[in-house]
Design brief:
alpha/beta; two-stranded antiparallel sheet; TIM Barrel; 301 residues
C-alpha cells in the first residue's frame, strides 16, 4: 500500500498514523457558531480533519420534493427552503477556513454536485470525498479527478461491480477508498469490516479506510485493527439535536475516547516480530524454571 500526500505535513497510507476525520456534515444545522464549536471539540480530541457537506440545493433536490412541507428548527417550511437553510455560503466557509487554520486542523467537504466542487475549490482543500450516493456519478468524479487532488470514494450501498467499475474508469492515482455501509445507524452485523482487507487485496496500491455510521466506538477501533488507513465518523455536540445524521454521530467525549483508543490500537499492533521485551525479563527470571540457550544469549547481550 502506498502513501498519498494530502498536504506538506500529512500523508495517508502505509506507515502513517491513522488519519481521523470528524464529519460535521450538516450537523451544524446552519449555525456557524455550532460549526466552530464542533471544530474546537474535534481539534481538542486530536482529530486530523473535519469534513463538511456541500450541495447546490436546486441541483441536488428532486423538483417533486421542493414544495413538500417540513417541520424544521426554523418552523414549517418547504423542503427546498430547508435545504438552503442548512447550506453555508462563501462568508461562512471563509470563516471556517480561517478558523481551521488557527486550530491547525484540516478541513474539506463532500461535494454533491459540480457547482459545489467549483465552490469548495476556491478554498484549496487538501482532498475531496465522494459520498456513497455519488459513487456512480461519474461526471462528478471526473470533475474532481481533473483537479489532480487526492480523493476518497465511499462505497456504501454499492455493489462490487459498481466499485470496480469506478476504479477501472478513473484509475488509482490519488485514490483512496472508504469501506462503508449506508445505514443510519448501522447494526454491527452489517458493518462487514473484513471488506477492508478485501479492498486492500484488490487494490494493494490504494489506501483503504472506513466510514462508520454505527452507534458505539468499539467497531470503529476494530476497523483500525483490520487495517484501515483513515477513519471517518459523524460528529455532533449532542445526539439529541435536530437532524437525520445526529443519531449515528459521536459526541465530544466519545470522540476523545475514540481517538485515544485508535492511537493505543496503533501502538498495540506492533510489527509482527516476536521479541522478549525488557518489561518481561524480571518475570522470565522469576517464573521460568528452565531458560533456553537463546534467552541466555539474548539476556547476556
Amino acid at each position: 500500500m502506498k502513501q498519498i500526500s494530502i498536504s506538506n505535513h500529512t500523508s495517508i497510507g502505509d506507515g502513517q498514523p491513522v488519519y481521523i476525520i470528524a464529519e460535521i456534515g450538516i450537523n451544524h444545522n446552519g449555525s456557524l457558531d455550532v460549526a466552530k464549536k464542533l471544530i474546537d471539540e474535534a481539534a481538542a480530541a486530536g482529530c486530523n480533519a473535519v469534513k463538511f457537506q456541500k450541495r447546490t440545493p436546486e441541483l441536488c433536490t428532486p423538483k417533486d420534493q421542493w414544495d413538500i412541507l417540513r417541520d424544521t428548527p426554523w418552523g414549517i417550511m418547504t423542503y427546498i427552503n430547508y435545504r438552503y437553510m442548512v447550506e453555508f455560503g462563501y462568508e461562512e466557509y471563509a470563516a471556517i477556513d480561517e478558523y481551521c487554520h488557527e486550530k491547525n486542523i484540516d478541513w474539506f467537504a463532500s461535494c454533491w454536485d459540480e457547482e459545489a466542487v467549483d465552490f469548495i475549490e476556491r478554498f484549496n482543500p487538501p482532498l475531496y470525498k465522494f459520498a456513497s450516493a455519488s459513487l456512480t456519478d461519474h461526471a462528478l468524479i471526473e470533475k474532481v479527478k481533473n483537479l489532480g487532488r487526492p480523493y476518497i470514494l465511499s462505497t456504501g450501498m454499492s455493489t462490487m461491480h459498481e466499485i470496480t467499475g469506478a476504479v477501472e474508469r478513473f484509475g488509482t492515482e490519488n485514490l483512496m477508498i472508504a469501506h462503508s455501509t449506508s445505514a443510519y445507524p448501522c447494526p454491527p452485523k452489517e458493518l462487514n469490516l473484513k471488506m477492508i482487507q478485501t479492498l486492500q487485496d484488490l487494490y494493494p496500491g490504494v489506501p483503504v479506510g472506513y466510514s462508520g455510521h454505527e452507534t458505539g466506538l468499539a467497531t470503529t477501533v476494530a476497523a483500525v485493527a483490520a487495517g484501515a488507513s483513515f477513519i471517518e465518523r459523524h460528529f455532533t455536540l449532542d445526539r439529541a439535536m435536530w437532524g437525520s445524521d445526529q443519531a449515528a454521530s459521536v459526541e465530544p467525549q466519545g470522540m476523545q475516547r475514540l481517538v485515544r483508543d485508535i492511537r493505543d490500537t496503533e501502538l498495540a499492533m506492533g510489527d509482527g516480530v516476536k521479541r522478549v521485551y525488557d518489561s518481561e525479563k524480571s518475570s522470565l527470571k522469576k517464573l521460568r524454571r528452565v531458560i533456553s540457550t537463546a534467552n541466555v544469549l539474548e539476556n547476556a547481550g
